[in-house]
Amino acid sequence: MFQRILVLGGTGFVGRAVCNRLVERGQGNGRILVPTRRLAHGQRLQSLPTVELMALNVHDDAALARAVAGADAVVNLVAILHGSAADFQHVHVALPQRLARACQAQGVRRVVHVSALGVGAGAPSNYLRSKAAGEAALVTAGLDLTILRPSVIFGAEDRFLNLFADLQALAPLLPLAGRGTRFQPVWVEDVATAIVRCLDRDDTVGKTYECAGPEVCTLAELVRLAGLWSGHERPQLTLPMWAGRLQAGLMEMLPGTPPMSRDNLDSMQVPNVASGQLPGLEALGITAAALDAVAPAYLGGVSGLARLDRWRRCAGRD
User: Which end of the chain has fewer CB atoms at under 10 Å, N or C?
Assistant: First the structure.
């Protein structure tokens, strides 16, 4: 069992779940090292025993080398959903390259890297292409590497179902492009458990796992469920992709993190579902939680998959 685990991106949505799982797992006198540029970002982790926050910028070579030197295994969760091509290159490619060099220099071999379903050098979006390049940077480094590719991740603080619930609470009608895009949502706690099990199992080295839930739903269906469970279900207005790109481009001009970007729409050209050609959560002994068993509780509504089935039969599935 690794005693000092460095969790890059540990203050984020998935990272907090991973840190909790690592604490529950127990590591004797071990430590969970979580770097962050601002210690305030890790405030919610400070009460966890064995978690040690480190004030540093992981995009700085010297700082990252110091962090890696204090660990004997690394989990990389750092990712962005929006930004320019240069932003994706910086986060999804340059950081894995830095991490590979730091691990080689410090003699740290074990790395678990979280990527995404649908990645590929010829994928339609900057997000998916950069994720593929980040995987390649770590694979070619010759590390003891395990890669996880999750579908869209849901949980109490997700930016997916909560976003569509919030939008429907504000607007009487929801314009939506890419309604037929298929997703296989996976619970954040199942992803966190998968990461910890990969750390604990030597037989996961050199493998890539697809992390997906038991249900495949279209974007339209997921938006409908988010509205239903939050008590704000609204009619959807189907947008052609050109209009969706115009809408997303306007959203990119909003201050802060945009709810949608043109690159997100490009990613939706690829189904966000498991290929079935790689091992999944079941290979790690995990029975994936159903969306219906988790999401209604944090969105504040009632179970709605039965009603969704009726809607599918009446309206036809996208």
Answer: N
Residue 95: CATH number of its domain: 3.40.50.720
Only one residue has tokens 């770590």, namely 138
Angle at 71 between CA 67 and CA 73, to 5 degrees: 120
Tokens of 215: 């249900």
* pLDDT tens digits for range 30-77: 799 999 998 888 888 988 989 999 999 999 999 999 999 989 999 999
For residue 182, list its beta bridge partners.
218
Let me know if residue 291 belongs to a domain: no
Q: What domain range is 119 assigned to?
A: 4-157+185-211
Q: Cα–Cα distance between 282 and 139 in angstroms, integer?
A: 24
In total, how many domains does the chain have? 1
Residue position matching structure tokens 């199942």: 190
CB 297 within 8 A of CB 289: no
